Each structure stands twice: as structure tokens, then as C-alpha cells.
Amino acid sequence: MDQQTLGALILIGLFLLLMFLRVPIAFALGVSSLATAFYLDIPTLVVAHRMVNGLNSFTFLAVPFFILAGQLMGEGGISDRLVRFADTLVGRFKGGLAQANIVSSTMFGGISGSSVADIASIGSFLIPSMVKRGYRPGYSVAVTITSSVQGVLIPPSQNMIYYALAAGGVSLEKLFLAGYVPGIILGGGLMCLCWILAVRQGHPAGERHSFRKAVMVALEASIGLFTIAIIIGGIVLGVFTATESAAVATVYALIVTRFVYRTMPFHKIMLVLKQSLGTLATVVAIIMTSSAFAFLLAYLEIPNSLANIIFSISSNPVIAMLAINVLLLVLGMLMDMGVLILLLTPMLLPVAQELGVDPVHFGVIMIINLGIGLCTPPVGTSLMIGCSIGKVSIEKTLKDLIPFYLLMFTVLMLVTFSPRLVLWLPGLLD
């Protein structure tokens, strides 16, 4: 066995072993990278330089701002106002509360950029409410967790920032715009599915709201929703970059929750800052160690080996992309989404580019795949949180999830093989 093959086995094998032993992901990445560097006689200073270089990016500055903005909006009561607004829009229809759940996720996903944040805030209120209205607990969880996948597609998606960092040179502005159409298609498909299930299973309609109440609720929610206009409007009009929009959105979120909604007293602001700092510290550690890990992957030419394996299955681009999708779906069931993006992008993006797939398009394909993984056992974070809130077992929820899985897979195939759906909106920046 040559040195390169043994080095690859040490890198990947030790990482998987440490993951199996439940070592924190940042330590697993760092230890496996250092062990491999020692074996290959690569100076540790080079590894340290690669770790620091992983953070030496203007794009990375968007991460702490979007984390803070999302937590300010979540803790500041924006989610409650969005739920009431969504209920006035679609709550009166058959299965209206499920429809309101999806609309709420669409709007809140455009603010928090996180599937987990969506479920923790909106789901904590809507899942119990749906159960009280007569929906099955498993169905309530299924609607909530699958609609929350929009949060990783619709800007400001934190996972798109991770992809931009791992891909290197991919425009974050274009990535943000690329997620809108797939996110809206997913949301629209979920609403159609919920309407069909509501008719077949007799789900209740919600109450009708007076025009005056609807206008008041809309005005109150619009203040928070203006965050989306700041982020996307500023990017499209060229007022500021995605990173700059994150800073502006954070300041706006602080002003709205502190002085307009008056739901964020000083002590609560300090608590949010503390929580955000803890989240950011974890993210920084993972990005640094994953940068070193990615460097060693490239040094050992693992992406080329993976490309050869995929092309050995078939040189047909359609079959090769299906193989990549299957790989992403399986891995998404086993590991955290953000970590997989940082690890797999340096390996799979070169393969996708050889197949003629645009880097922005491939980023959206990867994020949808891994977003589905958030809703699947055994490691689906969104599935576990949703089941915990709904007080229902994963096994019972999976029965209700089957039609939702089929819908999400259909959207994935549509996005994979219809690049114009993804790329026409980012083309506005050219």
C-alpha cells in the first residue's frame, strides 16, 4: 500500500472512528488532520496556516451577523407575528393551519436562514396548535420539519455561506438569489400536497378574519419582513454585498425588537449575544478544522479518486449526477448538514464541474439534498427536534412523512436537471 493510499485511510478512517466515538466534530476533524499531516511529514505550521486561512474571507463575516440577526428576530417575537400573518392569508382554507405553517416557514426562513431555528420558534407554537385542532401529531411534525427546509434555501441561508467558503470564489450574492425559486417551488408543492391530504383526510379549516384585523396583522408583520427586503433588495440593487447586508440586517433587527416591538429588554439582548457567541465559537472551530481537512483531501488527490469512481459507474452526466445525489442523500442521513457542506464541497464540486454543472447550481443541489437529510433518521436534527416538540415517536412520524419525502425528492430532481430554474435569477447580477 503506497503512502498516498495509507494517508487517505488515516485521514478518513480516523475521522469516522472519532465520530463513532462521539468526539465533537471540530476535534474529530482537527485530530485526523494533524495525524495525517504527521504521517505525510507536512509541517504543522502549514496545517495551522490552512486553518487560519479558512477564516480569512470577507464572506465569513456574514456568518456572525446572520446568526445574531436570526436570534434577535426569533427571541424578539417576530415568529409569532409571522404565524398570525400567515393565518390571516391562508388559515380559512381546508387544512388552513398546515398551510399557515408552510407560509410561516417561508417567511421566517427568509429571516433566520436556519431550519432548526424555524422549528424551534414556529414549530414550538404551531405543532401543539395543530394537534389541538385535530391534526395527527406525526402529520403536524411532518408539515413543520419539511417546510423548514425552505430555511436552508431562502436567503439568508447560513449553509449557503458555508458552501461559498468551501467552494472558494463562488458568489454569495448569486447563491442567495439562486435559492429563491427552488425554495418557493418547494413551499408551493408542500401547500398543494397539504391541500390534497386535507381533502382526503378531512382536516379542519381555520377561522376567517375581518379585513380590519388582517390589515393590522399585516402591518405589524411587515416591519419584521422588511429584513428580507434589506437583504435581497440591497444585493439586487447593488447597494451592498451579502456580507454588508448581514450587518445592516442585524442593526435593523436590533432596532425593531428593542424600540418598535419592545420585546427585547437590555438583559435579553445580552442573553442573545451570549447565545450567539457560543454558536459562533462552534462554527469558527468547525470551519477552521474543516479547512485543514479539505487541504489534506486535495493533497491526497481524493477528489480525483472520487471522480474516477463516479465516472466508472457511468460517463453519462445524468447517471453521474444521480449517483452524486444518492451519495449526498445517504450521507445527509448520517451527519450534520453544515459539516457535510464544508467536507464534501471540495470533493464533489470538481466532479460536478467536469459534468458541466455550474458551481452555483451545484450548491443549490447539495443544499436540497442535505436539507432532506435534516428530516431523515438516524441523525436528522430537524426530525428529532420536531418529534420532541410534538411528543411523538420518530417511527410514527415516518408514516406521515412518506408523501412529503416523495415531494421533496421530486423537487430535487426538478432542480438537478432544470438548471434554468436555479440560474435565471442570479443571472440578473451579470
Structure characteristics:
mainly alpha; 22 helices; globular; 430 residues; single chain; 79% helix
End-to-end span in angstroms?
49 Å
Radius of gyration: 22 Å
Number of domains: 1
The gross shape turns out to be: globular
Mean pLDDT: 84
Helix/strand class = mainly alpha
Query: Quaternary arrangement of the chains shown?
Result: single chain
Quickly count the helices. 22
- Total strand segments: 0
**Beta-strand fraction estimate:** under 5%
SSE order in H/E notation? Answer: HHHHHHHHHHHHHHHHHHHHHH
Which runs of at least 5 residues are low in confidence (pLDDT < 50)?
A: none
- How much helix, percentage-wise, in residues? over 70%
Largest sheet: none
Walk me through what this model shows:
With 430 residues, this protein is an all-alpha fold. It has one domain. It is 79% helix and 0% strand. The chain is built from 22 helices and no strands.
Question: How do the strands and helices of this protein lay out in sequence?
Answer:
Blueprint (H helix, E strand, L loop, with lengths): L2 H18 L4 H15 L4 H10 L8 H14 L2 H13 L5 H17 L2 H18 L4 H11 L2 H4 L4 H10 L4 H7 L1 H22 L9 H26 L5 H19 L5 H34 L2 H12 L3 H16 L4 H18 L4 H15 L7 H10 L3 H24 L1 H5 L7
Helix pairs in contact: 1-2, 2-15, 3-15, 4-14, 4-15, 5-6, 5-13, 6-7, 6-8, 6-12, 7-8, 7-20, 8-20, 8-21, 10-18, 10-19, 12-21, 13-14, 15-18, 16-18, 17-18, 17-19, 18-19, 19-21
Quick overview of this protein structure:
This protein has 430 residues and is mostly helical.
